[in-house]
Amino acid sequence: MGIVFLIQEAAAAQINKLYNLNLSPEQIQVTETKPEFEGEYTVVIFGLTKQLKKSPEALGRELGDSVKNTYPNLVCGYNVIKGFLNISVSDAFVLDFLSVRFGDSEYGKRPPEGKKVMVEYSSPNTNKPLHLGHLRNNFLGWSMAEIFKSDGYLVAKTSIANDRGIHICKSMVGWLHFGNDATPESTGIKGDHLVGDYYVKFGEELKRQINELMTAGMGEEEASKEAPIMKEAQQMLVDWEAGKPEVIHLWKKMNEWVYTGWKETYETIGSDFDKTYYESNVYLSGKKMVDDGLRKGVFFKKDDGSVWIDLTAEGLDEKIVQRKDGTAVYITQDIGLVEQKQRELGADLSIYVVGNEQD
Question: How far apart are CA 349 and CA 115, in angstroms?
Answer without folding.
Answer: 8
